[in-house]
Amino acid sequence: MKFFSRIIMFTAVNNMFVTPEYTGIEECSSETMESVWNQTRQTSCQLRHVTINLDASNHTGTVQVIPSQTVVKRCGGSCLSPSHSCYPTSSTMVSVEAMIISTSWNEGEWSTLCQTFRVREDTACACGCTVRPEDCTVHQYYQPQACKCICKNWKLRNSCVSQDKYWDTESCTCLCKNWRSCSTGYLFDGQNSCTCVPTFVVASPSIVVVVAVALFSALGLLTLLILSRKSGNANLSRRETLARVLTEEEI
Q1: Do 120 and 168 have their domain in common?
Q2: Of 104, 130, 156, at which residue does a domain stop?
Q3: Which of 14, 19, 54, 140 is found 20 to 30 A from 5 (Cα to Cα)?
Q4: 126-130, 148-152, 198-202: lowest mean pLDDT where?
Q5: Is the pTM of this model over 0.70?
Q6: Cα separation values, 195 from 171, 181, 207, Å
Q7: Residue pLDDT, tens place only, 80-115
Q8: What would you measure as the largest C-alpha separation in the chain, in angstroms?
Q9: Which of 206, 166, 174, 168 is nearest to 191 (CA)?
Q10: Which domain CATH number covers 86?
């Protein structure tokens, strides 16, 4: 049975996308399946020659690098499992000789220098999960079939969505969808009220504790200074009184 559906096929012309074309979908014949599998082998994960730019931006006054690019082998292509990615299992660093044409703007002189670039070249590839179990946080668990970390607290996620908020799958936190800037003395509460609140309201408990400890420490130090000054004044008064008594006795 033949049926038709819209399939978008983009044709690139001068790096611009033209109007998509639509083709029909039909049951696969044995010849078509064989052709598709041949294409799959051509696009499978394997070493491919790619062009890499030679970056000399760290060299002051660089005008041109000759050659500006080099060709190395890098892993690329598709994997049969949609959740897998093509990645290198082994690689090495190769040396690429190049000339750097630079100039000194103060003197206007041009000079040619030679530099060796170190570029990574892959030697073996494989299909697999690029996200590992160790990449998950304490709030996540690893799902090997999907090759990703999943948030544990699904109830909190459902509650977040029901409030028309945004659930961040990386931090497993509920955030406001629309953020905005606030006036001086106010901060945007991006997790609870989704409004601008006074700065002290959104201060974290640790900051509050630190401020409280600092205030109590300062108050205690001030009290010790006052007591010490009073004690010193009392001792001075007693010494002066004793001196007057001794003077009167001598007279």
Answers
A1: no
A2: 130
A3: 14
A4: 198-202
A5: no
A6: 21, 10, 21
A7: 888 899 999 999 999 999 999 888 766 667 888 899
A8: 135
A9: 174
A10: 2.10.90.10
DSSP the chain: --B-----B--EETTEE-PPB---B-PPPHHHHHHHHHHHHHSBSEEEEEEEE---TTSTTEEEEESSEEEEEEEE-B-SSTT-EEEEEEEEEEEEEEEEEEE-TTT--EEEEEEEEEEEEEEEEEEE-SS-GGGS-TTEEEETTTTEEEES-HHHHHHHHHTT-EEETTTTEEE-S------TTEEE-TTTT-SEEEGGGG--HHHHHHHHHHHHHHHHHHHHHHHHHHHHHHHHHHHHHHHHHHHHHH-
Point out the domain boundary residue: 73, 95, 130.
Answer: 130
Query: Does residue 7 belong to any structural domain of this protein?
Result: no
Residues 158 and 101 grouped into a single domain: no
